[in-house]
Design brief:
The protein is of the alpha/beta class and 363 residues long. Helices cover 36% and strands 16% of the residues. It contains 10 helices and 14 strands. Bound molecules: pyridoxal-5'-phosphate (PLP). It is an enzyme of class 2 (transferase).
Length: 363
């Protein structure tokens, strides 16, 4: 434990220490089972209980009603980029609207365009995705099958504080990098998907929350794995699900409920953590230049640049010496990215804040 760093990786990302310790303690044998979760059938009572508890935790934390199915899939969010149009476009709707607020929204639209007609409702590319649209800026089609948006752009560090209003057209959200960071009014969404490896567990699991009436749109001609309805009808066990990742999701959601005290509390903590770092940017605007416009700053990924590449390299090396790791920004934005998901403790953010203040003083 003493050799752990504060790891600011964008994903796979840091997990709560108590979750890792619990998984470690149970790795040789789940209590009363005599084997590890890695070794038992996904249809065994012990695992079915874990999967049901994980789903129940999600439903409780996000107040997900019975009108929605919760699916545990594989293939990452990238597979959702294709599955969403494969399932939701067809005879009833030929096209979908995409809101492009950063790299991931663009990637989603690129994949979707292979499956159907895609209209771009808004594109922030001209300012390198440093801002978000207001509802009035969106060019929406009332007959679109759905509107897709990315609630938090992991690379650029811009985040919607509230979902766009799309009227009666189903809203589809890639929530990969801010899933469960705050309470959500799920009833405003047709579908939410999130790969687990940022805020919900390890890589290998993608959670899909989908309005049940939309499941009826999936064509029987789709390959089974790519058909949401097949997964829903089989309780996400049409094929062998990612059992260990689902077990970890269960532990992470237990932690959110029992140690954090729910998503309202988590949101408060996330706001406090992000505010510590953004204050350093605001106090030193000539040294640290934030990428996102202040009003759309992400609570999850804090992105900023230093005056030059040499200082950036020095910053990364000196941070590593202080056990603050994985801070390099994505090449399309440059500079630094501090990912401070739910599991990043306040002490880690305070350590980074202190380091940043000290670094400006020295340079
Ligand atoms: C917002 C967002 N969407 C999609 C992805 C792609 O997820 P995956 O690598 O699980 O396919 C990522 C992360 O890598 C992401 O941050």
């Amino acid at each position: 434990m003493t050799t752990r760093t504060y790891n600011f990786s964008a994903g796979p990302a840091t997990l709560p220490l108590s979750v890792l310790e619990k998984a470690q303690a149970e790795l040789l044998s789940l209590p009363g089972v005599g084997a590890s979760v890695l070794e038992i059938s996904h249809r065994s009572p012990a695992f079915v209980e874990i999967a049901q508890a994980a789903e129940a935790n999600l439903r409780e934390l996000l107040s997900i009603s019975d009108d929605y199915a919760v699916l545990f899939l594989q293939g990452g969010s990238r597979l959702q980029f294709s599955m969403v149009p494969m399932n939701l476009l067809g005879e009833h709707a030929n096209s979908a609207d995409y809101i492009l607020t950063g790299s991931w929204g663009k990637n989603a639209a690129k994949e979707a365009a292979k499956e159907g007609d895609i209209c771009i409702a808004w594109d922030g590319g001209s300012t390198n995705y440093d801002r978000l649209p207001a509802d009035g800026d969106l060019d929406l089609n009332s007959d679109a099958g759905y509107v897709h948006f990315t609630s938090n752009e992991t690379i650029q560090g811009v985040q919607f504080a509230a979902e766009p209003n799309t009227g009666s057209v189903p809203l589809v959200c890639d929530a990969s990098s801010d899933f469960m960071h705050r309470p959500l009014d799920v009833s405003k969404y047709g579908m939410i998907y999130a790969c687990a490896q940022k805020n919900a567990g390890p890589a290998g699991l993608t959670v899909v929350v989908m309005r049940k009436d939309l499941l009826e749109l999936s064509s029987d001609d789709l390959p089974g794995y790519l058909n949401y309805k097949v997964h829903a009808e089989n309780d996400s066990m049409w094929n062998t699900p990612p059992t260990f990742a689902i077990y970890m999701l269960k532990l992470v959601t237990d932690w959110l409920k029992d140690e954090i005290g729910g998503l309202e509390k988590m949101h408060e903590l996330n706001k406090q953590k992000a505010a510590l770092l953004y204050k350093v940017l605001d106090d030193n605007p000539d040294f640290y230049q934030g990428h996102a416009k202040p009003e759309v700053r992400s609570l999850m990924n804090v992105t900023f640049r230093l005056p030059d590449d040499e200082l950036t390299a020095k910053f990364l090396a000196a941070a590593k010496e202080q056990r603050l790791t994985d801070l390099k920004g994505h090449r399309s934005v440059g500079g630094i990215r501090a990912s401070i998901y739910n599991a990043m403790p306040m002490a880690g953010v305070e350590a980074l804040r202190d380091f940043m203040v000290d670094f400006v003083g020295r340079h």
